Amino acid sequence: MSEYPYVIRLSADYSIKPFDCGNADLNEFLFKDAVEHAKELLAVTYLFEEEDCTKAYFSVLNDSVRRLDADSVNLFKKKLLHDIPHKKRSYHSYPAVKIGRFAVHKDFHNNNIGTELMDYIKRIFLDSDIAGCRFITVDSYGDSVGFYLKNGFDFL
Ligand SMILES: CC(C)(COP(=O)(O)OP(=O)(O)OC[C@H]1O[C@@H](n2cnc3c(N)ncnc32)[C@H](O)[C@@H]1OP(=O)(O)O)[C@@H](O)C(=O)NCCC(=O)NCCS
Asked: pLDDT tens digit string along 79-121?
């Protein structure tokens, strides 16, 4: 994969190439719900393709991390505020982007594609100055928690 993976933003008339990540809900979302979510401004989906299949996709939406979301104020301070300037530590919430869905075709699992796409998402949202975005959030499926921990995520 090149340093900047070429991803396509899913649009209504786009013909999605075959995809199977091994999880029926995530497969169904791509083929049945992703376009509708984009139309309703609920989430935007991006595709990473091979000539004859979809290798991976992810969908993203705006989010915020609130003090109330953390288990305790101390945890919040320790994990999330340590590198925020003192004056800005009293905010009630901080801007974030949520990864709503994230999946790699099962034929390509454990080939680093997930990690490279995750790096791409981090660069696009955290390094971009189009809108403030301090954090990336995800509601992880139980069996993929290890993947997110390896990619720098932590429990809130
Ligand atoms: C989870 C998923 C996205 C990972 O993508 P991937 O391209 O296979 O991951 P990578 O090859 O980049 O893996 C990077 C590391 O995470 C680990 N990893 C991958 N999937 C994992 C999992 N389900 N649980 C624990 N660790 C995992 C790999 O072993 C690897 O570790 P290493 O660097 O020590 O070898 C992919 O397996 C997938 O699409 N699964 C089905 C759908 C799913 O569960 N999506 C997440 C929804 S929240």
From this structure: 777 778 877 877 888 999 999 999 999 999 999 999 999 999 9
Cβ < 6 A, ligand 1 pocket: 21-23, 26, 102-104, 109-115, 140-141, 143-144, 146-147, 150
CA–centroid distance, 111 to ligand 1, in Å, is 9
Decide if 87 is inside a domain.
no
pLDDT digits (tens, 9 = 90+) for 50-63: 999 999 999 999 99
Domain carrying residue 41: 8-64+95-150
Atom of ligand 1 nearest to the CA of 26: 42
Reported in sequence order, the residue ranges of 1-156 that DSSP labels E, i.e. its strands, are 8-9, 44-49, 54-66, 93-104, 135-138
Q: For residues 137 and 91, what is the distance between their CA atoms, to the nearest angstrom?
A: 18
> Considering the domain boundaries, does residue 137 fall inside one?
yes
CATH number of the domain where residue 41 is located: 3.40.630.30
